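worker-3 :: picked DZANK-type domain-containing protein
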Amino acid sequence: MIVIILIDIFILINVFTGLNDISQWYINPSSAYPCYSEWKNYQTQTTSDKDYEIIQSSVISAINYQYNFQQTYQQAAVGHLGAVSQTCLEYGSYKDKLNNPENQQIIATIDQKQEEISQIEQTNRSIREQYDSTLLEKIAGQSRDQSINRVGAEQAKQQLEQNNRNIARLKQEIAQLKNQLKAKPESLAFINFLNNNRTFQSIENAYQQASFWYPSLQFGFQSLFLLPLIFFSLSVYNFAQRKAYGLIALISWHLSVVFFVPLIFKLFEFLQFGTIVQFLVALISTLLGGLVFLVSYAYILLIPLIGFGIIKFFQKIVFNPKIQAARRVQKSRCIRCANKIPTHDAYCPHCGFYQYAECHNCHSMTYKYLPYCKQCGQSQDSS
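worker-3 :: tokens ->
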């Protein structure tokens, strides 16, 4: 039993590993539409400097100059089903054109000037914080050699004014560099592409549709991975039952359970986070004005009903004693252990099970669990 449990644990770990791998087989929406989130952020942004910000994010440092957005987007589809959006590949090509040494130098210069501004502003804050102290030192007649402050009281105002002039000059230079960068042909082409609302709308619709169906595709591939394993283990179990291979029957039965557990787990996961929940959220938001918490009530009702349906399915189809008995009687096998027995034997020589029951209509002996009496043909369901 310990060996069987260890085997079950080992197989269960590998089953979940396989499920995780196959669930990523189909390309996910973010990889299929890699430009969507960045483009969406640009469309919704309201800052006046958003054109420069998205250009800046597209220009990689000189160290990574060989970086290619379009190739990186295409690489995401390698080893996966599905393809990357052609519009996003075009988006990547625009970004690649922006990523040239001249633009990199402009960005580096802007960053350098921004750093200078930050340092000057820090100096101004220090001067303002120390002004009261330097003023007291001056009133007390303390010499500058003994002061710990950076500038004297008489120089503080002049220093602040000079620093503010430097900040204004640097900001003007930065504005000129930004305008120079945005005026480049590759920048204008990129911004015009971003402002094409019709193209963006088609990307947004495609991304939303892909996101809606992606959980269903994942569950479909996971089922495709598990169902052959379940079918194989049940086939081995039935074969071992017929041949009275007790150990093989036990192991294959455990394997069937091991394979069923992830399938049921993934089914409930799909019901909780998949296409159905998205549909319910959208429906409730539309009909009831955003009372999304009602989805929880729906699941409290829905999940137990589905669980009950699964139990009834196994009771009626998979483990139905009447169906098993009919198959075994046709093959002259014991109704309980499925071993071969002579046709008219009342007791199984392998397990000792009594094969017959009295018909409630004609009181003759007929097979247990079969729906009709073999002598009078009357239904045995009420017996």
